[in-house]
Write a structure and sequence with these properties.
22-stranded antiparallel beta barrel; 2 domains; Immunoglobulin-like; mainly beta; Maltoporin, Chain A; four-stranded antiparallel sheet
Length: 753
């Protein structure tokens, strides 16, 4: 063994000596208008097998090049093909800076890349270019197979469904904005609660997503997958947008450049984005939903090697809600479909964020990323799910409330090396997050004014430190291997304020998550892949301390295989089959302040996604997802997982005419699904169509959008719940639902300057 190691080291040393006199190329790719970097551009060195991909700052590098003249070909979706000639000298690094001009989307220009992240980016880039986004809900729907439901007024975080998971508000999906986590651990309403309403849709530049627990940089909650939203580093023009719609709906958006845009070679950008939203909603009882959001973002090149990005964002909202209603109340005509049993539900919430990132390029071509973030968060929610079941006189309204500060750090070191004809890309990462939650409360209330009983009240201090290594090896043009491992350490502290004295409980736990993925790129039209990995989601601190730190990091083990290929020059198709097993977990039910154990589960599925350019100006897309979800330890026919959707699909047609007309006609389909373990109660599915038409010119845009074009009656959220109405002697268990929006027309006007 010692001789083998010595021989390998000698060969590596000789290769380094022989290549030491060779030169290199360091380049950057930027948008020609905004001068902002373009991530994921494919850079090919003509006449060689070398290929590189731009990083977050738009940089790429080729090493070990013999002296001579090289031609670089750069390909990026939505931009013209670009070629550059570069002179390379011995022992020197040549620099080249490329500026891309935008062009209409052309699927014929898309090639299947050996880099899997680039392929995922192609799909999301297509979608974000072609799908209109007016709300944060529209942004979430960018993820193929992801469905959302709102069941307590517009201000509450949406319920999320993905890959056979009723994720609730974020238990099994990791969401972040500019690298800053959205999910709230040990939240008053539920684990992983992810309120994305602070994100202004017009500021989103790109969406990164992947399904499954296969990726080392993503730790807690990334079991069904992760979604990362990247806001724009720069805006081309300032803009004011005004929107008005049915049900007393009003929206105003402003985006303003704050620096002189006349500079031909800007090294810094700054802009301010604001959003105000108001709606009474389509319910009989007005929501009076108010929301204000703001984002201030600044980017600058401190010098040629150091880049700083800083942002401040804030939002606040308050709303009233009608909540979920029972079928029997509607069928008996006690209330209408849009009525309420308790219309005093609702709440208010706010979040303020500070986010700083410093990226440094080192002389050897490697990079170091340091990110620090802070969030202050307030939350207060009033709900009534069971009406008069527990309290026949005052009702069952509950209050959930908390005050939270989050401190976090993300660091990563990345480098690329070439050895023995292979390319090695290494990433070492460190994540730190600490949540300090004061007065995490659950109380029984009446009319949002009177506290009848406190069920839970305490302080949470939760800390997570994660380290990972992620190695990608490219063997020629055909084979890419990715292996990673992640280690996470948790510390949980809970102080129970309902007990006399200082009642403190502490626990800790850790988990190791290995990953292994392979990608075989047969040519630029076909790639086969196989993914495998282990992930996890942490449980609520109040569960952890009661279990003494045992069995509170349930592991998810997933495998997946599939292909991405171009059937024709204008038809991109991806398919995959997958399996995901989740271990035993203890779930803290925030609405009841109790712990419910659940057994092992298994989910298996098939995903199909297609993107098709029918004509130069007409595009079609579809996503079809099938999932078989069962509890492994339960008896047959009693092993259904409530609200696990079996079949889902989204898709539509989008057009972009040269005269400025553009729009889309889209559908959403969610099949029937079990509402309880024996499938005796069914949550009904729905098929909906939405439409958008815009007329866009250089100085203005005018348009309208329609939700539920066919004006169907549909239920957005559904639960099998036991409840009792005021005049009932005995409780009844049946479907309780929140009605979905009827035909809803909005018109808007944007002015660019």
């Amino acid at each position: 063994m010692k001789k083998i190691i010595t021989s390998v080291f000698a060969i590596f040393l000789i290769a380094q000596i022989l290549s030491a006199h060779n030169g290199s190329i360091r380049g950057s790719v930027q948008d020609a208008t905004t001068k902002s970097p373009l991530f994921g551009a494919i850079v090919t060195l003509e006449g060689t097998e070398k290929q590189a991909y731009t990083d977050d700052l738009g940089f790429y590098q080729f090493n070990d090049l013999e002296a001579g003249t090289y031609k670089i070909i750069i390909n990026y979706l939505g931009y013209e093909l670009l070629t550059e000639s570069v002179e390379v000298r011995d022992s020197e690094t040549s620099t080249v800076r490329s500026f891309f001009k935008g062009t209409p989307i052309e699927l014929q220009a898309v090639v299947i890349s050996p880099e899997p992240e680039v392929n995922r980016r192609i799909v999301s880039s297509l979608d974000i270019h072609l799908r209109p986004t007016n709300t944060s809900q529209d942004i979430l729907r960018m993820v193929p197979g992801l469905f959302i439901a709102q069941h307590a007024g517009g201000g509450k975080a949406e319920q999320i469904f993905l890959r056979g998971f009723d994720i609730d508000h974020g238990t099994d999906i990791s969401l972040n904005v500019d690298g800053m986590p959205v999910n709230m651990v040990s939240h008053a309403h539920g684990q992983g609660y992810a309120d994305l309403h602070f994100l202004i849709p017009e500021t989103v530049e790109r969406v990164q997503f992947a399904k499954g627990p296969y990726y080392a940089p993503y730790g807690n909650l990334a079991t069904a997958g992760y979604v990362g939203f990247q806001t724009k580093n720069a805006i081309d023009k300032s803009m004011i947008k005004l929107q008005v719609g049915q049900f007393d709906t009003y929206r105003a958006v402003g985006m303003f450049n704050l620096l002189d845009q006349s500079q031909s070679n800007r090294s810094q950008n700054a802009y301010l984005a604001t959003e105000y939203f108001f709606s009474n909603g389509y319910f009989d009882s007005p929501q009076a939903y108010n929301r204000f959001s703001g984002l201030l973002k600044y980017n600058t090149a401190l010098n040629n090697n150091h880049y700083l990005s800083a942002s401040l964002s804030s939002f606040s909202s308050r709303w009233d809600a009608s909540g979920q209603i029972p079928n029997r109340a509607v069928e008996s005509r006690q209330i209408g479909r849009f009525g309420a049993i308790d219309d005093t539900e609702g709440g208010n919430t706010s979040r303020t964020n500070a986010n700083f990132q410093l990226i440094s390029l080192l002389d050897d071509g490697s990079s170091v990323r340091n990110q620090f973030y802070f969030s202050h968060y307030d939350f207060e929610l009033y709900s009534n799910f069971t009406f008069f079941l527990n309290n026949p006189i005052d009702g069952d309204q509950i209050k959930q409330k908390e005050n939270r500060n989050i401190f976090g750090y993300n660091g990563a070191y990345q480098r690329s090396d070439e050895w023995a004809g292979t390319q090695w890309q290494t990433e070492l990462g460190l994540n730190f997050r600490r949540d300090g939650v004061k007065n995490n409360e659950l109380s029984r209330t009446k009319g949002r004014q009177t506290t009848l009983e406190r069920l839970a009240l305490g302080d949470v201090d939760e800390m997570n430190v994660g380290v990972y290594v992620d190695e990608t090896i490219r063997i020629g043009k055909f084979l890419t291997l990715n292996a990673g491992v992640r280690f996470d350490q948790f510390q949980f502290l809970y102080v129970n304020r309902l007990k006399e004295g200082y009642d403190r409980q502490i626990a800790s736990a850790n988990i190791v998550s290995p990953k292994l993925n392979a990608y075989f790129t047969i040519n630029d039209r076909l790639q086969l892949f196989a993914n495998s990995g282990s992930g996890f989601h942490s449980n609520d601190t109040r569960v952890v301390v009661t279990q003494n730190g045992k069995e509170i990091l349930p592991r998810a083990i997933g495998v997946e295989a599939g292909a991405m290929f171009k059937l024709t020059p204008r038809f991109l198709l991806s398919t995959s089959v997958w399996n995901l097993d989740l271990e035993q977990e203890f779930v803290y039910v925030g609405d009841e302040a109790v712990v419910e154990p659940s057994g092992e589960t298994r989910r298996q599925g098939l995903d199909i996604a297609g993107r098709w350019q029918l004509l130069n100006w007409l595009f079609a897309d579809f996503d079809v997802n099938y999932t078989f979800a069962r509890a492994k330890d339960a008896p047959e026919n009693e092993d259904f997982i409530p609200l696990a959707a079996e079949i889902t699909s989204i898709g539509g047609l989008t057009f972009e005419a040269k005269n400025g007309m553009n729009g889309s006609l889209r559908y959403r389909y969610l099949g029937d699904r079990p509402a309880n373990e024996d499938n005796s109660v069914i949550a009904k599915g729905y098929f909906l169509m939405d439409a958008v038409i815009n007329y866009t010119k250089s100085k203005y845009e005018i348009g309208f959008s329609i939700q539920n074009l066919l004006n169907r009656d549909w239920n957005e959220a559904q639960f099998d719940t036991e409840s009792r109405l005021f005049n009932e002697a005995e409780p009844v268990s049946e479907i309780h639902f929140t009605p979905g929006t009827p035909f809803n027309l909005n018109v808007y006007f944007s002015y660019f300057f």
